[in-house]
């Protein structure tokens, strides 16, 4: 059985939900074909309507600041939008039932906002209660919309199946309880040939207090549901065609990556590929369930990106190139101290103390260079480091991270890469022992040129055979 997760843009309005219905119908029909190995499902997991979570949190912020009128105004706008979107439910009785639910939820939200406005304080627990309304509402609308379009669907209350700890706004799922709750609530629906619809992002503690898994948490919900119920595939429906070979805002001619390993996806996400955060699909990966990123605007003609734990060997050295600007290089030089043991630890302790995370690190006999992108505490960091070393900083730098399992296959790829980069000055280079990626730090101004050169060499030009190409037989 397949888990289909629809992000905010895929449920943003009536037209989006109509597309969703078409996509779920196709999946349901595939499941009940005689050749299908499993007639159950799909299970649908949805985000809040696109942009709604920000607005719900806005209500909380306004109430907390004592701006009760502002909070009520936002609540009215949210209520109106949800009622309008519920118009996608064609069955009059179903629609009336959902509208009644929505009115109750929004009445309650208004009361909460009023109370918090008096207290002028919003605890994480109330933030969760308010944000959760988004997914609880969208999932109700989608369940009824599917049913009224002839797909027998059932709304599942996420608070009854996603059991978490009580870390509000970043709650952790409790797998044994969640697995048991899903088996009790969702398995019978699947057995009755219904399509369960669950709001992502939302859960509840063992004692029934509403929690959330953190921003963007619906992907995580989908992966947890899939892992607990042994899904054959998890589909993440979004508004782009998949993971791309490079950032389209920097260069043109980028392509969709058809297949990548989980480890590659993690490397790419680290340096800026925003489509999906691999940490959120970890439960799927540890159960070895394939994850697909798909475009809900082009459901039947964009093949998407497949992410699996391992990927078939390929002769292509690179899978994609991630990049990021706004990077600062900090150079720490000390002829006296560097080789003394404990020196690196002292350096990293300074970054740690100022809660600044370091991305790329290189070392030489007398110096350590690191990159950071959060410059808020840099002046204090530098003056602390200057007690033991000479320190310089260089702003406006960029990171390019070339990623590919294929890099391991042929040691000459590295020199090819350097050759492609050509005369662009490189400030730092780092390759991990796993040889799945090579990272370069360059000046931000050189990023477009460098990325274009690397992309042309490894993706655009037929320098490397396509994945399915066979070696050419040469007749002598
Ligand atoms: N609606 C939540 C958010 O905007 C969760 C999600 O969409 O994944 O963060
Ligand atoms: Mg998302």
Would you spell out the secondary-structure blueprint of this structure?
Elements: E1 2-6, H1 14-31, E2 43-46, H2 52-64, H3 68-85, H4 92-119, H5 124-148, E3 153-156, H6 158-161, E4 163-164, H7 175-185, H8 187-191, E5 195-199, E6 202-205, E7 210-212, H9 218-229, E8 233-238, E9 259-261, H10 262-270, H11 282-286, E10 291-295, E11 305-308, E12 320-333, H12 343-353, E13 358-363, E14 367-372, H13 378-385, E15 390-403, H14 412-421, E16 428-431, E17 437-443, H15 447-460
Parallel strand pairs: 1-2, 1-8, 2-5, 3-5, 4-6, 8-10, 9-11
Antiparallel strand pairs: 6-7, 10-11, 12-14, 12-15, 13-14, 15-17, 16-17
Helix pairs in contact: 2-3, 2-4, 2-5, 3-4, 4-5, 7-9
Roughly what is the average pLDDT, rounded to an integer? Answer: 92
Structural class: alpha/beta
**Main sheet specs:** 8 strands, mixed
Low-confidence segments: 465-476
Strand order of the largest sheet: 3-5-2-1-8-10-11-9
Count of runs of 4 or more consecutive helical residues = 15
What is the β-strand count? 17
Helix content: 40-55%
Walkthrough of the structure:
This protein is α/β, with parallel strands linked by helices and 476 residues long. Helices cover 40% and strands 20% of the residues. It contains 15 helices and 17 strands. An eight-stranded mixed sheet has the order 3-5-2-1-8-10-11-9, sandwiched between helices. Strands 13-14-12-15-17-16 form a six-stranded antiparallel sheet. The longest helix is centred in the first third of the chain and has 28 residues, at 92-119. It is globular. Mean pLDDT is 92; it is low at 465-476. Aspartic acid binds at residues 7-8, 47-48, 53, 134, 200-201, 215-218.
């Amino acid at each position: 059985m397949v888990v289909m997760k629809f992000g905010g843009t895929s449920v943003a309005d009536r037209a989006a939900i109509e597309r969703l219905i078409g996509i779920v119908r196709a999946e349901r029909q595939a499941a009940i074909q005689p050749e299908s190995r499993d007639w159950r499902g799909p299970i649908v997991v949805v985000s809040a309507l696109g942009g709604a979570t920000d607005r719900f949190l806005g209500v909380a912020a306004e109430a907390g600041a004592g701006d009760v009128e502002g909070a009520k105004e936002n609540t009215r706008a949210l209520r109106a939008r949800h009622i309008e979107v519920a118009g996608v439910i064609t069955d009059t009785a179903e629609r009336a039932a959902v509208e009644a639910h929505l009115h109750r939820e929004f009445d309650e939200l208004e009361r909460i906002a009023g109370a918090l406005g008096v207290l002028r304080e919003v605890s994480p627990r109330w933030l969760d209660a308010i944000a959760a309304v988004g997914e609880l509402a969208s999932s109700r609308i989608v369940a009824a919309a599917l049913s009224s379009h002839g797909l027998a669907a059932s709304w599942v209350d996420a608070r009854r199946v996603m059991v978490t700890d009580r870390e509000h706004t970043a709650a952790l799922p409790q797998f044994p309880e969640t697995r048991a709750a899903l088996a009790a609530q969702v398995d019978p629906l699947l057995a009755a040939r219904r399509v369960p619809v669950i709001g992502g992002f939302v859960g509840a503690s063992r004692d029934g207090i509403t929690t959330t898994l953190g921003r963007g948490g619906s992907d995580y919900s989908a992966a947890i549901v899939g892992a607990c119920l042994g899904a054959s595939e998890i589909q993440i429906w979004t508004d782009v065609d998949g993971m791309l070979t490079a950032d389209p805002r920097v260069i043109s001619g980028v392509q969709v990556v058809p297949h990548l390993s989980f480890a590659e996806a993690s490397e790419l996400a680290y340096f800026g590929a925003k489509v999906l955060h691999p940490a959120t699909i970890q439960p799927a990966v540890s159960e070895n369930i394939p994850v697909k990123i798909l475009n809900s605007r082009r459901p039947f003609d964009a093949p998407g990106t497949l992410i699996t734990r391992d990927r078939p060997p390929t002769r292509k050295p690179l899978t994609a190139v991630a990049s990021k600007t706004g990077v600062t290089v900090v150079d720490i030089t000390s002829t006296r101290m560097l080789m003394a043991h404990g020196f690196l630890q002292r350096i990293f302790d300074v970054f740690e103390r100022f809660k600044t995370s370091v991305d790329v690190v290189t070392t030489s006999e007398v110096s350590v260079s690191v990159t950071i992108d959060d410059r808020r505490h840099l002046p204090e960091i530098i003056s602390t480091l200057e007690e033991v070393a000479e320190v310089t900083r260089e702003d406006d730098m960029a990171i390019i991270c070339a990623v590919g399992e294929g890099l391991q296959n042929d040691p000459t790829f590295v020199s090819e890469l350097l050759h492609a980069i050509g005369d662009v000055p490189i400030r730092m280079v780092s390759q991990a022992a796993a040889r799945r990626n090579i990272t370069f730090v360059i000046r931000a101004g050189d990023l477009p040129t460098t990325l274009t050169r690397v992309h042309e060499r490894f993706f655009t030009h037929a320098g490397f055979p396509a994945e399915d190409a066979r070696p050419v037989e040469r007749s002598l």
